[in-house]
Amino acid sequence: MSDVVRVRLLFVDDGQYHQEDVPIPESALEGYDRLIDCIREEPEVLKRVFVDADRLCSAYLVGGWEG
Q: Which of 15, 34, 52, 58 would staple 10 via disulfide (CB 3.0–4.6 Å)?
């Protein structure tokens, strides 16, 4: 998966925080100014991962995807 980037999502649930790294196609980022818009709207991203936007605190790129 050479053209995949790693996005770290931080969630809060009943006062507890947890993070999860998800793979996002690098090409999916091109059409968006904000990462959150890509995560919530891009069909290629939506096929790979469901993100509960009500619990999402932050999302940021952390590098390439290994594995």
A: 58
pLDDT in tens, 6-16: 999 999 999 99
Burial of 24 (0-12, 13-18, 19+ CB in 10 A): buried
Angle CA(51)–CA(56)–CA(62) in degrees, nearest 5?
85
Each domain of the chain, given as residue ranges in start order, spans 4-64
> Could you tell me the two tokens for 34?
């904000």
Q: Which amino acid is at 22?
A: V
53 neighbors 59 (Cβ within 8 angstroms)? no
Q: Quote the pTM value.
A: 0.82
